[in-house]
Amino acid sequence: MILDWGPYTINKMYKITAEDEKKLATLSRYQQAILRILTEVPKGKVTTYGDLAKELSLRDPKWLPNASRAVGTTMKNNLCGPQIPCHRVIKSDGNIGNFRGGEKGAVEEKTAMLQSEGVIVVKGKIDLKKFRHTFHRE
DNA sequence: AGGGTGACACAGG
DNA sequence: GCCTGTGCCACCC
After folding, report:
1. What are the backbone angles phi and psi of residue A89, rounded to the nearest 5°?
2. Which label site among A4, A22, A55, A64 has the fewest CB atoms less than 10 Å from its CB?
3. Is A87 in contact with A99 (CB distance < 8 Å)?
4. Which one, of A94, A48, A93, lies nearest residue A67 by Cα?
5. Nucleotide with C1' nearest the A87 CA
6. pLDDT tens across A94-130, in order?
């Protein structure tokens, strides 16, 4: 099967470890579910807060599709570490969005991480047509 | 049980 | 484009 993921498709999705599971267990069901889906976003791609909410709703209709704010809260709770790639979650208009709760310099750091992964950022913006991840489900 | 809060989304102007 | 206002939802008191 050929996936149109562009040139930076080398990475597979992150596999959650037993260590991660222990941390995940401290979070709400919703947040756990969101973070699990987030692990599917590979290096070189991004997703949006809204896309994550929508995707979870498709997989489990008990959650609403327009919960983007709740997804933001999930990212803030971050026990992600760089493995569960919360730096790959941006706003639906292509702007970088926030990082580390809005600490000074955090957005710059997020931008640098994305660029080092091959995502092109121009004036704080990312071309979602090019870099948006497409979720795959059975 | 009810009100407050965000790493958001969207439509207007 | 760049604000601004309004709607949103899961979570936390």
Report:
1. -105, 120
2. A4
3. yes
4. A48
5. B7
6. 999 999 988 889 999 999 999 999 999 999 999 999 9
HSE-up of residue A93 (Cα within 13 Å, Cβ side): 3
Q: Which two structure tokens, joined as six digits, stand for A20?
A: 């991660």
DSSP-assigned states of every residue in A51-88: HHHHHHHHH-TTS-TT-HHHHHHHHHH---TTTTTGGG
Strand A47-48 to A89-90 pairing: parallel
Q: Annotated catalytic, A86?
A: yes
Q: What whole-number distance in Å separates Cα of residue A99 and Cα of residue A120? A: 18
The Cα–Cα gap between A31 and A79 comes to 11
Q: Distance from residue A125 (CA) to nucleotide C13 (C1'), in Å?
A: 36
Residue A118, both tokens: 């091959």
* CA→C1' distance for A56 and C12 (Å): 22
In this structure, are residues A96 and A90 in contact, taking their beta carbons and an 8 Å threshold?
Answer: yes
pTM of the model: 0.91
Those residues whose C-beta lies under 8 Å from the C-beta of residue A106, and which sit 6 or more positions away, are A98, A99, A100
CA atoms within a 13 Å half-sphere pointing along the CA-CB vector of A23: 13
